[in-house]
Design goal:
The protein has one domain: Rossmann fold, CATH 3.40.50.150. It is α/β, with parallel strands linked by helices. Helix 2 runs antiparallel to helix 9. It has an eight-stranded mixed β-sheet, sandwiched between helices. The protein has a three-stranded antiparallel β-sheet with strand order 7-8-11. The longest helix is centred in the N-terminal third of the chain and has 24 residues. The model has no long low-confidence stretch (mean pLDDT 94). It contains ten helices and 13 strands.
Length: 326
C-alpha cells in the first residue's frame, strides 16, 4: 500500500498534456463532414469559471437537485454504502475537481483513504492540500488521469479491500451508451467487490431540459462560444465568436441534449495547417448529455456486472443517485 502521511497527500501524474496531439484531435474533428469537437476543449481557465457560473443558475437544476438528494437521504445512502463495502471504506472520487462533494461525505462515511482522480492535475493538487489540512487523519492520494480514456489504477493507489467509487454530478451523461457501459465495467473492477455511488440526470419534460442548457442570461451560450477562443489558442485559428451562435436542444430519439455552435453566415476559418468553409446554418457539434430513465440506468448497471442497485431521487424524479454493488 502506498504510504501516506497526515500532512501531505501523495500525488501520481498519469495524464500528460500533449499540445500537438490535442491540436491534431481538434483539427481532425473540425474537418469531418459533420464538424465536431470534444467537450474537453470547453475547459480553459475562463471556461471552467463559466461552468461554475452555470451551476449557480436557477435554470440549471442538476447540481442543486443532487445536493438536495444527499441532504435529505445522506445518512441512509451512507449506511447502504458502508453495508456494501466496509466500515471506513476507501473512497475513490472520479472527476474530483475541488473535492467538495466528496468532502461532504467524510462525516458519514469516515473513509480511511481518499483517492481523488481528475484530469486537471494542478487544480486537484491545490484542492487536496486544503482538504488534507482539514482531515489530517485520512490518507489521501491524488491521481492526474483522463479516465475517459480508461479507468485503471494500481492496487497500491486504491489500497486493500473493497472501495466505494464515487462519480457525482451526472457526468456519466457525457458518455454515449456504449462508452458509459465501458466506464461502468471499469468502475466495477476498481470497486474490487465494493460499490459504485453515481449521480444520473433522468429523463424529464423537454422545457426544463432545454432551458438548463440554453438559459435566458446566456451564460451557457458564453460557455459554448468560449470554446472557439480556446481553439484559436490551440490551433492558431481565426474563429470570430461574433459569427457564431449557441444552439441546444433535446433529441428525444437519442435521449440526449445536444449543444452546437452554428454559423450565422458563410465564413471560412483558417489555421496554419488547414482551413474550412462553413455555410450559413452549418454547425459544429460540441457536446452531448444523455438522459436516462431510472429503469434504463438500472439495466445498464446490471449489464456492467452490478447485481444489487438502489436509487434515491428528488420529489419530481428529475435526478437519481444510484448505489450499485455485486
Amino acid at each position: 500500500m502506498t504510504r501516506c502521511t497526515n500532512q501531505t497527500p501523495v500525488f501520481f501524474q498519469r495524464h500528460r498534456i500533449d499540445a500537438a496531439a490535442l491540436a491534431e484531435e481538434a483539427a481532425s474533428g473540425l474537418l469531418c463532414p459533420d464538424a465536431h469537437v470534444s467537450p474537453k476543449f470547453f475547459y480553459d481557465a475562463l471556461g471552467s469559471r463559466l461552468f461554475d457560473a452555470i451551476t449557480e443558475l436557477t435554470e440549471y437544476y442538476p447540481t442543486r437537485t443532487e445536493a438536495a438528494i444527499f441532504a435529505q437521504h445522506g445518512a441512509r445512502i451512507a449506511e447502504a454504502a458502508i453495508a456494501a463495502t466496509a466500515p471506513a471504506p476507501v473512497l475513490v472520487d472520479l472527476g474530483a475537481g475541488d473535492c467538495a462533494k466528496a468532502e461532504r461525505l467524510f462525516g458519514v462515511l469516515a473513509p480511511k483513504r481518499y483517492v481523488a482522480v481528475d484530469i486537471s492535475s494542478e487544480f486537484l493538487q491545490q484542492a487536496m492540500l486544503g482538504l488534507q489540512r482539514r482531515h489530517p487523519a485520512v490518507e489521501m492520494v491524488g491521481v492526474g488521469l483522463d479516465f475517459s480514456q480508461g479507468l485503471q489504477l494500481e492496487a497500491d493507489i486504491v489500497g486493500a479491500g473493497p472501495a466505494l467509487v464515487f462519480y457525482p454530478g451526472s457526468s456519466i451523461g457525457n458518455f454515449a451508451p456504449d462508452a458509459a457501459l465501458r466506464l461502468l465495467r471499469e468502475a466495477r473492477a476498481l470497486c474490487a467487490g465494493g460499490a459504485l455511488l453515481i449521480g444520473v440526470d433522468l429523463v424529464k419534460p423537454r422545457a426544463p431540459l432545454e432551458t438548463a442548457y440554453d438559459d435566458p442570461l446566456g451564460v451557457t451560450a458564453a460557455f459554448n462560444l468560449n470554446l472557439l477562443r480556446n481553439l484559436n489558442r490551440l490551433l492558431g485559428a481565426d474563429f470570430d465568436v461574433r459569427q457564431w451562435q449557441h444552439v441546444a436542444f433535446f433529441d428525444a430519439d437519442r435521449s440526449r441534449i445536444e449543444m452546437h455552435l452554428q454559423a450565422r453566415e458563410r465564413l471560412t476559418v483558417r489555421w496554419p495547417a488547414a482551413s474550412r468553409t462553413f455555410a450559413p446554418g452549418e454547425r459544429i457539434h460540441t457536446e452531448n448529455s444523455y438522459k436516462w430513465s431510472r429503469q434504463g440506468f438500472v439495466d445498464l448497471l446490471h449489464e456492467a456486472g452490478f447485481t444489487v442497485t438502489r436509487c434515491w431521487t428528488d420529489a419530481q424524479a428529475w435526478f437519481g443517485v444510484f448505489l450499485a454493488s455485486g
